[in-house]
Design a protein that fits this description.
heterodimer, A: alpha+beta, Ubiquitin-like (UB roll), FAD/NAD(P)-binding domain, 6 domains, seven-stranded mixed sheet, 24 helices, 22% helix, B: alpha+beta, Gyrase A, domain 2, Alpha-Beta Plaits, six-stranded mixed sheet, five-stranded antiparallel sheet, 11 strands
Chain lengths: 987, 194
Amino acid sequence: MTTQSFRNAEGGLIDRATPLDFTFDGKAFQGFAGDTLASALVANGVRLVGRSFKYHRPRGLIGAGVEDPCGLVRLGAGDRAEPNTRATLTELFAGLTADSQNRWPSLKWDASALTGLAGRLFPAGFYYKTFISPQVLWPTYEKIIRAMAGMGTCPEGPDPDVYDDRFAHADLLVVGAGPAGLAAALAAGRLGQRVILAEQDMRLGGDLLAANRSIDGRPALDWVADTVAELEALPDVTLLPRTTVFGYHDHNLLAAVERVTDHLPHAPAGLPRQRHWKIRAGRVVLATGAIERPLVFADNDRPGVMLASAARAYVNRWAARPGTRAVVVTNNDDGYRSALDLQAGGIEIAALLDTRPEGGGALAQMARDAGLSPRHGMAVARALGGHAVTGAEITALSGGGATETVDCDLIAVSGGWAPTLHLHSQARGKATYDESLTAFVPTDPKQAHESVGAAAGDLTLAGALAAGSRAGGDDTLAPPADDHPAAPIQALWQVPKPPSGKGKRFVDIQDDVTAEDVALAHREGYESVEHLKRYTTLGMGTDQGKTSNVNGLAIMAGLRGQTIPAVGTTTFRPPFTPVTMGTFAGREAGHHFAPIRRTPLHARHDALGAVFQTAGLWLRARYYPLEGETMAEAVAREASHVRRIGGMVDVSTLGKIDIQGPDAADLLNRFYVNGFKALPVGKCRYGLMLREDGIVLDDGTTTRIGDTHYYMTTTTANAVTVMRNLELYLQVHWPDLDVSVASVSDQWAGVALAGPRARDLLARVADIDVSNDAFPFLAYREGAVAGIPARLFRISYSGELAYEIHVPSDFAPALWDALLEHGADLDIRPYGTEAMSTLRIEKGHMVIGTEIDGRTTADDLGMGRMVSTKKPFIGHVLKDRPGLTEGGRKQLVGLVPVDKRTPIPETCQIVKPGVVTGRDPVPIEGHVTAGTFSPSVGHPIALALVKDGRARLGETLHAVSPTTRVRVPVTVTSPVFVDPEGERLHA
Amino acid sequence: MPDLARASARASALATVSRPGVGPDCGVRLSERPADALVQVAVPAAARAAVADALGHALPDPLTAIDIPGKSTRLLWVSADQWWVEARDGTAPADLAARLAAAGARPTDQTQARVVVHLAGEHTRDLLAKGWALDLHPRAFPAGACAQSSLAAVSVMLAAVGGGAYDLYIPRSFAQSLWDWLLDAGAEFGVGVD
C-alpha cells in the first residue's frame, strides 16, 4: 500500500476517517471519502496516468474536473468495464479498480511511443495522406489505425447494469450549482417555483469547493452549506448532484444523466446505475461556469504541467499537492490567486511568471505581500522532463529568446477563463468574442434560457451571486464577496518555440494537435475552423476541445491575419460530455425492449405447450407440438386435422372497430372498394381497402349488427392504421359524416372454429339455430355460447365450414375451455398461426406483408372484379394510373414443384428456365411470397407474384435463390389449391 | 343443449402476474380494480342534455374526470365528443349502454377492454415519471384531471383521483406487460399489491 505522501494533514473536503482502498494499473493505493480518482492519484504522487492518442506520449492530469483531456481510464472489469472514463469525475469508492489506456505493454514502457520520436512523420492529416491508396488495402490500414489510435476498448458482453429513464418538469432548471446556480435556485425556490438544480459534481458548490473565498464576510463554504440546507427543505426544489445536463433540445427539453450508483461499491437492489432525465423546463438558467485555458508552449503536455485552477483545486478541495515546487505562469490576475493557494497548501513557488509586461492588479500585490516575486513579461518556453516535469525553461517574451532553467516538478498555467457556453450554443444561442475576456461569451439566447456568472463572462464572485439571484427572480439577494480589481488579461495564444527548437507545442492535448499542425492545416488550405477540426482532429475526442478550441482558432486567426470573431467557432453539439450507451437504452432493454401484447387466451395456449411467435407486439400461439414432433410435422398435422375433422384457433389479435351513426354505411362505402350500402342487418361482407395511391392497404370483414351499427375487423397488422385512417377522414376530410368510431380490439376476443365438424360442436354449445339454412355463409348472429354472450360470424379464412365466435375478453378462457371440453369427443383440436397460414396458402388467401406488400393492386391479387365502378372510394382515382393498369404487372398465382417434392422457399426469385444467376443481373419474372407443405394436396406448394401470371398457368419457371443456391423448377397454377368451388365453405 | 352457464366469473388479464405483498416500506401500492361497466359513449351535440339527464350529471370538460357525488359512477373525457362512463355499483354494461343509447348517444362497451389499476403511495409519481412524459405535479395535474398518453410505450388513460393516487386504465392486451414494468421500474421504491 502506497502512503498518501502528497496529502496535507489538514484541510480539504475529504473524510480522513474513511480511507478507501483502490487499485490503478493493478497497484494498490488508498484515498479518502470525498476524493475523486484523480485527487487520490495526486495525493499518492502518481503523475503518469495515460498515453496520448497519436504519439503515445506520457500524460498526466491537466485539469481537476470536466475539462481534463488526459486522465482517461478504464474503470471496472469484465462486462462492467467502462473505457474513457474521466479520473477527475470519478468518485472514489472502496474497491475501485482503474487501468490506464493506450499503452502496451505498460504505461511506463509503451512500444508505440516510438511514433513520438518519429513525430515528424505523423503530421496533421497523416491518415488522409498516408492511407489513401491502394484502396484495397484500406481494411488493413483501418485495423492498424484502430489499434494504434483508438482510445480504450469496449467490453464484449451484454451490459449487466440496469439503466433508468425519468421525465421531469420544472418552472426553472438551473444547470450548475456554483455560486450563481445556487443563488438562482435559492431565489426561485423561495418564490415557490418548481426548481431543478443539476450539478455534475458529487457535491454542490461549484468553484467555491476549490477556492478560498468568502461571502458576506464568512467562508464561502458556510454560505454554500446554508444555501443547500435551505434548498433541501423546499418541497418543490429538486437537487440533482452527480447529474450532467448534456443536451439542450428544442422547446426547452434538456437531457441529463444522473450517476445514481456509479460511486457505490455495490448498487442497492432496485437502483439503476445511471438515470436518463428528460427535463421540460419553463426557463433555464445556465450557471455552467468557465474553464481555464492552458498556455501553448513546448512540451506543455509533460505530466506535471497543469491548469493553475486545477492545481489549486487539488490543494484546496482535496488537500492533495500536485507537486512540491512549482513554476506558475499566467496571463491574467487569477493566476496569482492560484499561486497564493498553492503556497498556502505547502507547495514552494519556484517562480511566478506574468506574461504581461505591466503585471497584475490587486492580487499581484497580495502575492508580493505573501513573499512571492512576480516576474513580468516572462513565460515558460519549454517544459523539461519525460514521465514527469523536472524543470522549466523560462524566457522573456520581448527578449532575444535567452532562456534560463528553473527546477520544478509542477508547472501551473493560466491562460484565462473561457465561459462554458456549450448548452447555450446547443440551444442555438450565439457566441460573441469579448476582447476584455479574450473569450467567447453567450449572447442572443434563442429559447427561454439565460447564462449567469462565469458562464456569462462575469468572473467575479459578487457578480455571479447577483446575476444568479436576479435570474432566479430576486434582485435583492446579492451578498458581497471578496473580489479584487484585476488588471487586463493579455491575449497570448502561443509562446514562441525555445531557441533550441525542441519540443512540441500542443494546442489540443487529448488529440495530439500542435501549433505546427494548425499552421500546416493553414498552409494546405484547411482554413475554416470546421475544416481545421476535421483535418487535424483539433477539438475532437471525448473532451471535444474544452481546453483547446479557443487557442486553436486564435492561432488560425493569427495565421489568416484576421480577427478571432471573423474566424468563428465550431458548432457545439450534444452531448456535453460522453454518455454511456446504456443510459440511452434506459429501461427499454431485455424483455422491456417493447411492451408485449397477450391475447386473453395466452395462459391457455401456454398450458397446452404452445410455441409462441411475435406478430408485431403480439405473442401468438404458433403451433402446439406433440412430444418429439418437429415444427413442420406439427403444422402439417394441425392443418390436416382442420381439413379432415376440425380445429379452433385464437384470432383475438384481429383489429376490431365499432362504427355507429346514420352515415356509417356511407363511410364504409368510401373506405372499401366494394359496396356496403346494400349490406343487410345480420350479414357480414368481405371488404378490401386501398391506400390513397391505389395500392391495397388492408382486408377484413365488416358486419352490420344494427340499423346504423357496424362491426369492422381488420388484419392484426393494420389494426392501428385502419383505426387511424377512419379517425383522420372523419375529423379532417369528411367532418360532415355523422359517424362515431371506437376501437374495440381489446374488448372482444375471437376464436375461429373450422372444419367439417365445426357445426356439430357449435350446435352443442350455442343457443341459436346453426343449421345451414338458419345460419348460412356470411351470416351474423348474436347468442350465447357456453352461456357467454357472443357475436357469431359464419366466415372462413381456412376455406372450411367455419365460424368466428367473439366474446368479451374476460370470458374468452371460459369459451375456450367449453369448446375444448364439448369438442373432445368430436376430436376438435387447437391449431396455431402456422397451420392457419398453411390453410390460407392452400386457399390462395393473401396476407399483409407478403402478398399485400405495399406494391400490389387489387387486380394484381386477383380481386379486380371486386372493385366497384359505381362509386368513389379511397384510392379509386390513383388505382387507374398507367403504371398500375398496364400489362406486365406481377399477378398472384400458385406454384407447384415440377417434381412434386422439393419445397419452394419463400426467399426465391422466379426466372425463366435456362437463365443463369450469377454476377450479372438477370430478368426476374416474379417472386415467391409464401411456401408450405400442403397436407391437403400432399406436396409442397407456394404462392407467388409473377409477371402476367394469370396468363401463364401451366408454364414451367424456376424458383431460384442465388444466396442459398436453391433452384426449383415449378409449374404456374391457380393460387387456389383446395376446393376452388368453395363447396366446403358453404357446406 | 347442456347447461353451459359457466361464464359468470370474469377472468382477469392479471391472473398470472406476480403480486408482492405490501410491506411497511412500500413506496407504491398497486391494486386491480375491475369496473362493473365501462362504456365509451359518443355524444352528438344535440344529445348532450339528454345524456346529462340520463347520467344525473353534466359531461366533464376535456382532460377532466368527475366522480358523480353520491353515485359510484365516474365520467372521463376521452376525446372530442367522446367520454367514458365507468360504473361500480353493479350496473351491467348492457343496461348502461341501453340507457345511454336511449338518450341519443352511441355507446360502445369497453368494460373488458381496459384493466383498471389503482396506484397509491408516496412514490407513485416518481414511478410514473419513469415512463410518462406529462407533468403530474398537483399544480399541473390536480385531482380530477385525466389524460391519455404513453406509459412505457403503452397508450393508457391516467386519472388523478386525489390524495396522490391515480387510476390507470390499461388496454387489456398490454396489462400484464405494463404490470411487469410497474413492478420492475418501481423496485427502488418498493411496490406492494393490495
